[in-house]
Design brief:
Helix 8 (178-185) runs parallel beside helix 10 (213-226), helix 16 (431-442) packs across helix 17 (460-473) and helix 18 (490-507) packs parallel to helix 19 (518-524). A hairpin with a 3-residue loop joins strand 11 (279-286) and strand 12 (290-293). With 593 residues, the chain is an alpha/beta fold. It has four domains: 3-68, Alpha-Beta Plaits (2-Layer Sandwich); 76-159 and 259-324, P-loop containing nucleotide triphosphate hydrolases (Rossmann fold, 3-Layer(aba) Sandwich); 333-558, Rossmann fold (3-Layer(aba) Sandwich); 563-588, no CATH class. The longest helix has 18 residues, at 490-507. Helices cover 32% and strands 21% of the residues. Bound molecules: iron/sulfur cluster. Residues 25-27, 34-35, 45, 50-56, 66 line the site of iron/sulfur cluster.
């Protein structure tokens, strides 16, 4: 059986530890040098002689991975980042006139794959340090659609435009006004039109370093679209956007298609992925070790296969358990003891004013919060968390000065939207969560491999998981989590939603979850709050309502209807003006309940 070994030498600095690991290897003990310590001190593993016993993996904690490859991958990789480093097998295939989505967990090479298609990364076919020329690439893919694609790339017939994943890095590389930056790359002369479609006209005169995450995302999409290309690649286009913007961007991206243009999308919001894509590849593999790509499938099939965790044609089980959705039962809880209530709450922040209709949160409830960006969701949560003072109204549990701080009567734990990091170790920060909730929180979120890392060494997704664990690990009655799905992949989002749900139920706590991923909120919420109004001017807090009433109110404003997929029971957006869309709208049932 072919296997690959991945070694993170950054985590193996101690020479004695390396020698100890080497001394444990049964192949080395038998006289064959399987684990080597190179002259430069790096620990290396010979994949051909390794027998996959796993002894070094246990001894090195998470610094070594030994992974058995499925039979179909007994071949050269498309690209390997170096000896004992990540390997990518196969590539996704763009198709003219179609949006092709790529579905998969973080760390299995989605961005590497699109970078190769986009010409940003030249594959080396496992020959480290070497960059293949087009002849070699074409030869490698002989007899496949990919061969035709790279032949066109070689002839200069394919021009690729790429929207990168980490839009937050753009202000570090580019300086100046948004308008000036976009003008420089506007090969189509359509800056005004595109800015209008993406609703970024008002920020064109702003400096790129001064705009919000959602604005930066739409400016990056505009930059990709303004280039003349016939393959557009969008890596996570929904990050930082609210649902209205996600739907708008999806429609806009689809409008790029014509018979000569192809679009590829990597996306973790499953409802948006489904809405945007015609066909999809599933990427599977082992995080940070290897990744491969399934054949192309209609998007509905691809999602159902992904949820099922088994690729029949390739005979590969990439997840032990199926992800299941349940038809929602009417919300009913025997105990409805009130925890917090508010009445007449108001707050003014510059030109923005927030007012809340009367509402309450009961013990043992998860309340989802939906609303556009800039409509006061974070402000309201911060009032509940006692981080800012309200101007008017009352909150039960508030102190006698009416400062809106619940902390004196109701203990609150708050995870903010924007996460800060420092050089503290994860295991130190999470000591309370580890002590009390190892099985409930730490294990399902797979945080143990992060214990010895500092907070500022974590990726966005890792930091998010640590922040969620920290928030839930604190002793409180009300847990406020602002955008917990950000930076997480589809699978991590579903795990996080289950962890929060189970935690609230088992501990009889309450939680308020602000998020833009409808599937995530649908999966975990008992009730829904909806923020209405006009972004940056006025926010009106409504609810909590039943899921059906809240979703109906919210979806009606977006003019979209949801149905449940018959096979997976996953919510899906109906195509605008389809039979189901019209029928549901006539009945006033925008939500499928
Ligand atoms: Fe040696 Fe391979 Fe076993 Fe590690 S997994 S100890 S390298 S045989």
């Amino acid at each position: 059986m072919k296997r690959i070994a991945v070694v993170d030498n950054e985590k193996l600095k101690d020479k004695q530890k390396k020698l100890h690991i080497q001394s444990l290897c049964p192949v080395n003990r038998g006289g064959v040098e399987c684990i080597k310590i190179e002259k430069d001190g790096l620990l290396m593993i010979d994949e051909n002689t390794c027998i996959g016993c796993g002894i070094c993996v246990r001894a090195a904690r998470d610094a070594i991975k030994i992974v058995n490859l499925p039979e179909v991958l007994d071949k050269k990789p498309i690209h390997r980042y170096g000896e004992n480093k990540f390997a990518l097998y196969n590539l996704p295939m763009p198709l003219s006139g179609k949006v092709v989505g790529i579905l998969g967990v973080n760390g299995i090479g989605k961005s590497s794959a699109v970078s190769i298609l986009g010409g940003l990364l030249k594959p080396n076919f496992g020959d480290f340090g070497k960059k293949a020329d087009f002849k070699e690439i074409i030869n490698f893919f002989k007899g496949t659609e990919t061969q035709l694609f790279f032949e066109k790339v070689e002839k200069g017939e394919i021009k690729v435009s790429y929207k990168p994943q980490h839009v937050d890095l753009i202000p570090k590389a580019k300086k100046g006004k948004v308008k000036d930056l976009l003008k420089k790359i506007d090969e189509k002369g359509k800056l005004e039109e595109v800015a209008k479609e993406l609703e970024i006209e008002d920020i064109l005169d702003n400096d790129i370093s001064k705009i919000s995450g959602g604005e930066l995302q739409r400016a990056a999409i505009a930059a990709a679209v303004l280039k003349k290309a016939n393959l557009y690649i969008f890596d996570e286009p929904s990050s930082y956007l609210d649902i209205k913007q996600r739907i708008n961007v999806s429609k806009f991206i689809r409008s790029l298609l014509d018979k000569d243009a192809a679009v590829m999308v990597v996306e973790h919001d499953l409802i948006i992925f489904d809405y945007m894509s015609d066909l999809a590849h599933i990427m599977y593999g082992s995080e940070d070790a290897y990744g491969s790509v399934s054949g192309l499938k209609p998007v509905k099939n691809a999602i159902n296969i992904y949820l099922g965790g088994y690729l029949k044609e390739e005979n590969i089980r990439f997840r032990g358990k199926k992800i299941k959705f349940e038809a929602r039962k009417p919300f009913f809880k025997k105990q409805k003891e009130e925890l917090v209530s508010w009445s007449g709450v108001g707050k003014k922040l510059g030109k923005f004013s927030l007012s809340a209709e009367d509402g309450k949160i009961n013990k043992g409830e998860v309340i989802g919060v939906l609303g556009e960006n800039g409509i006061g969701k974070t402000t309201f949560v911060r009032i509940l968390a006692g981080e800012i003072k309200k101007d008017a109204g009352a909150i039960s549990g508030a102190n006698s000065a009416g400062k809106g701080n619940l902390n004196e009567n109701v203990k609150v734990s708050y995870k903010p939207q924007y996460l800060e990091s420092n050089d503290e170790l994860v295991m130190v920060v999470l000591k309370d969560a580890v002590k009390k909730y190892t099985n409930q929180i730490i294990n399902p979120l797979n945080i143990k491999p992060l214990f010895e890392k500092k907070l500022n060494e974590l990726s966005g997704g890792e930091l998010q998981k640590a922040a969620i664990a920290y928030c839930l690990g604190r002793d409180a009655e009300l847990y406020l989590l602002d955008e917990p799905s950000a930076y997480l992949d589809v699978e991590q989002r579903l795990i996080v939603s289950r962890v929060i749900r189970d935690f609230v139920e088992l501990e009889n706590k309450s939680a308020l979850i602000v998020d833009h991923d409808i599937l995530f909120l649908d999966y975990l919420s008992d009730k829904l709050m909806v923020f209405d109004g006009v972004p940056a001017k006025e926010g009106i807090v409504k609810g909590p309502f039943s899921m059906e009433d809240g979703m109906n109110m919210f979806l009606k404003k977006l003019n979209i209807t949801l149905r449940r997929d018959k096979e997976s029971l996953m919510p899906r957006v109906n195509k605008l003006d389809s039979r189901l869309d019209r029928e549901q709208k006539e009945k006033g049932k925008f939500y499928y309940a």
